[in-house]
Each structure stands twice: as C-alpha cells, then as structure tokens.
Specification:
Number of strands: 6
Helix content: 10-25%
Oligomer: single chain
Distance between the termini: 26 Å
Radius of gyration: 15 Å
Order of helices and strands: HEEHEEEE
Strand order of the largest sheet: 1-2-4-5-6-3
Shape: globular
Strand content: 35-45%
Number of helices: 2
Largest sheet: 6 strands, antiparallel
Length: about 140
C-alpha cells in the first residue's frame, strides 16, 4: 500500500484533517507530519492574544497519524469494507506548547494489534526535535455504525 493511499482513506476532511504527509509505515509503526495553519478557527480563542494549539487537537493529530493511519495500513489485507477504526483511549503527557505555523512530526510504534484492538506508543516532536507531547493511544476496529 502506498503512503498516499493511506491518507486518501482517512475518514476526515478539512478543517478536521490533521495529516499533511506520511513519511514511513511498516507493520511496526508509522511517521507523519502536520503543520498547524495560523488561521485555524480554534486559535481565535485559545488563548486570547497568545494562541496555543489545544491539547485535544494535539491528541487528535497523534490519533489520526499514529493510530488511524497505521490501522488502515495494518488492515490492508483484511476484508474490512465496512470497518472503521474508533479511538477508545489516550494517556497523554503535554510537555511544550505548539503554536500556529509550527510543523510537528508524529512517530507511532505499535504496542499490539490483536482481536480488533490497536494500541500504540506515540510521540510528537516540533521542528527542533523536542518532544511536545507523548502518550499511549488505543482504538478498536468495528463495523460501520
């Protein structure tokens, strides 16, 4: 499966697509990037005169790259026409703020994938290579609702 094919299968669109590019994927993990545009709606109120990317958006970015994109790759040989990957849990640590116009790189390492459940160790770094957040994300594969 080509990296561009994984991105095309993501069930998101702008303004809620937080995957610009997928750089690498294999059965053990995935790496991708996203740049936070300065005109994103949530920056208008978080925080006034000093916009910072909300933690929930950082978590969503990590889930889209590190869980859903990896799940699509891992499911490529499964008969899953009606399957969706549903985010189920996150245990996150937020270490540094992410500002508008910052490009982040998300690296996800599969912990396990069995019985329809995917669990990953995910790290987000800024352009200088500093960790901005990290955590354990999990999801399940289920039939469409």
């Amino acid at each position: 499966m080509e990296l561009k094919d994984i991105r095309a299968q993501l069930p998101y669109s702008k303004p809620f697509l937080f995957v610009d590019e997928l750089l690498h994927v294999d059965e053990n993990g995935i790496v991708g990037t996203y740049t936070f545009a300065e005109n994103l709606e949530f920056y208008k109120g978080h925080f006034k005169d000093n916009p910072i990317t909300p933690g929930v958006i950082l978590t969503e970015t990590m889930a889209q790259i590190g869980l859903v994109s990896l799940g699509i790759f891992l499911l490529q040989n499964e008969p899953t026409e009606e399957a969706v990957i549903v985010f189920t849990s996150a245990d996150m640590q937020f270490l540094k703020p992410v500002y508008p116009k910052e490009k982040v790189t998300v690296t996800s390492r599969k912990i396990f994938f069995r019985f329809g459940k995917l669990k990953c160790d995910v790290v987000m770094k800024n352009e200088t290579g500093q960790e901005v957040c990290k955590g354990i994300l999990a999801g399940i594969i289920t039939s469409k609702l």
